[in-house]
Design goal:
Elements lengths: L4 H5 L9 E5 L20 E9 L6 E2 L4 H13 L6 E7 L4 H8 L2 H18 L3 E5 L6 H25 L5 E4 L19 H10 L1
Parallel strand pairs: 1-2, 2-4, 4-5, 5-6
Antiparallel strand pairs: 2-3
Helix pairs in contact: 4-5
């Protein structure tokens, strides 16, 4: 959560996003009230991590998360201009949950509906999906469907409620076609990347 003296001396240009993750496990050492918002270090903070229930796919804010998230939202929103807080959903170890959830329209719908409810209940500004990582072409298709349906649901809820649309961002891999040894896809080189972009 620290920045260099040079960075602190510069103010962000208009429409520039300055994002950072706020890991819940650092709450004791870095309380939200200790974060220096005064020089606009951040425009967006990503609360890491929350996850869907592996059976129902409802997004879960645990009893441990609740007070931390409340403190973070309060500290971020009470600045001028306010810093937006997004729920980062995922992280390591939940790829199977995302795979199962995204594979059918009804489970995607349940997940999406619960995320919007959780966001409004906790006064957060949106979501950051951190799926590590879709493993094949079918999961990439399901990821695309999830984003399309999520965006439509967010827009519909905003129009109905009159509230500002929730933000939707992602930290996901752009293709399932590049692999290094191991389970997580990686770009193997600039040549491979160039070939893929040309042949797509």
């Amino acid at each position: 959560m620290s920045t260099s003296p040079r960075a602190r001396a510069q103010s962000p240009a208009p429409n520039i996003v300055r994002g950072a993750y706020y890991p819940s496990w650092n709450y004791e050492s870095v309380n939200p009230s200790q974060i220096d918002f005064s020089e606009s270090h951040f425009t967006h903070l990503f609360y890491a991590f929350v996850n869907p229930d592996p059976t129902t796919f409802d997004l879960v804010i645990t009893s441990d998360d609740k007070p931390i998230l409340s403190d973070l939202v309060s500290a971020a929103h009470n600045r001028s201009p306010p810093v937006m807080v997004l729920l980062s959903i995922g992280g390591g170890g939940v790829a199977a949950v995302f795979s199962n959830m995204s594979g059918a329209e009804d489970t995607r719908s349940r997940f999406i509906r619960s995320t919007i409810e959780v966001a409004r209940e906790n006064d957060v500004d949106g979501f950051d999906l951190d799926w590590e990582s879709p493993k094949d072409a079918a999961e990439m298709v399901n990821l695309g469907l999830l984003f399309e349906e999520w965006r439509a649901a967010i827009d519909s809820e905003s129009a109905t409620s009159g509230q500002r649309p929730l933000l939707l961002t992602a930290a996901v891999y752009f293709s399932n076609r590049f692999f290094l040894p191991g389970d997580v896809p990686r770009v193997t080189g600039i040549q491979d990347l160039t070939s893929n972009l040309i042949n797509s």
